[in-house]
Design goal:
Order of helices and strands: EHHHHHHHHHHHHHHHHHE
Helix content: 55-70%
Number of strands: 2
Structural class: mainly alpha
CATH class of the largest domain: Mainly Alpha
CATH superfamily of the largest domain: Tetratricopeptide repeat domain
Strand order of the largest sheet: 1-2
Number of domains: 2
Radius of gyration: 24 Å
Largest sheet: 2 strands, parallel
């Protein structure tokens, strides 16, 4: 199903650890290697130059490898990032930030057990780190360890009440548990703390839809689209909200825009197909179901909707032949988590 909203991972960090007293001729490379304000390729080149020079003690080497890992991390080169964070830990086993950042990369790779382990290590070294609690919480959530995830999000909020991602992620977990009032409260706090981020508005809109309040969902999505007008998922979700509101014409217009922005999302074709079907345009409905199935051959929703349309020959939403025993509504489904900044 479409990822209507994602979980928030807390972001990459660069600690203020500097190589101790490098020779004068290496000062420029040292400054570039440790700087957060240069391109990753420049960082990689400078850090490698320092390693070729040699002569550093273990703490300095740990700092250089950490910065090299950070640069690969920013490039999305996960394996190289892990390799260099691991080298930093080899030289400095108590380097909390290296555990923290390596845990983020393991999370990005889908290795949630190792992500939990690295955040455990970071928290042993820095027990008041709200971001590490948040990031361990989303790893637990991916492992379906919901009680531990809820506890970690709560602890992150207690330690850092201004951490928008922790409120968002706890709201996501409450949404999954169908506790929509609590989810809306947490999403609202995330929006208050990060008003220029469309993520919270998108998530709260999904919760409003589950509560049957399509008007508030549309209002939130209008705000979200103003902030992120190129995001296909926002138009697709607003299309669902307009459909629930009884306005299939506006729903189709939003689905059209979502497809322009992302023509490879099967759910949007399926939802537009339902909207066409409600308007009596069975041919277009079947064409959209066909496109949804081509993109996602195992999509049970699109398969059922197409079956109903073909079997009924009229309004498939009012007739359910036994051969087509599954047809789901346009309600959005939640996605996965996000790290905090």
């Amino acid at each position: 199903m479409t990822n209507w909203f994602a979980l928030l991972l807390v972001g990459l960090v660069a600690p203020t650890v500097e190589p101790a007293g490098p020779p004068e001729v290496l000062q420029r490379n040292t400054a570039t290697c440790e700087s957060e304000n240069v391109a990753p390729d420049e960082t990689i080149s400078a850090c490698r130059s320092l390693l070729r020079f040699g002569g550093f003690d273990r703490a300095d080497l740990a700092a250089i490898y950490f910065d090299l890992g950070r640069a690969y991390d920013l490039k999305g080169a996960n394996d190289s990032a892990i390799e260099n964070y691991s080298m930093a830990l080899k030289f400095e086993p108590g380097f909390a930030w290296a555990y923290y950042n390596r845990g983020r990369v393991y999370y990005a790779k889908g290795d949630y057990a190792r992500a939990v382990g690295d955040n455990d290590s970071a928290l042993r070294l820095r027990p008041d780190d709200a971001s590490a609690y948040n990031n361990r919480g989303i790893s637990y959530l991916q492992e379906e360890n919901l009680d531990h995830a809820m506890a970690d999000f709560g602890q992150a909020i207690r330690l850092s009440p201004g951490l928008a991602a922790a409120f968002y992620n706890r709201g996501f977990l409450l949404f999954r548990e169908s506790r929509y009032d609590g989810a809306i409260a947490d999403f609202s706090e995330a929006i208050r703390l990060a008003p220029d981020d469309a993520t919270g508005l998108r998530a709260r809109a999904a919760a409003w839809l589950r509560e049957g309040d399509d008007a508030r969902a549309i209002a939130d999505l209008n705000r979200a689209i103003a902030l992120a007008p190129g995001t296909a998922a926002l138009f697709s979700l607003r299309g669902s909200a307009w459909f629930e509101h009884g306005d299939s014409a506006r729903a189709i217009a939003d689905f059209d825009r979502a497809i322009e922005l992302n023509p490879n999302e099967s759910d949007t074709f399926d939802r537009r197909g339902v909207a066409f079907h409600v308007r009596g345009d069975r041919a277009r409905a079947i064409a959209d179901y066909d496109r949804a199935i081509a993109l996602a051959p195992d999509d049970a929703v699109a398969l059922a909707n197409r079956c109903l349309a073909l079997a009924d020959g009229g309004n498939a939403l009012q007739s359910a032949p036994t051969a087509c025993d599954r047809s789901l509504p346009l309600q959005p489904e939640p996605a996965r988590a996000v790290p905090a900044p």
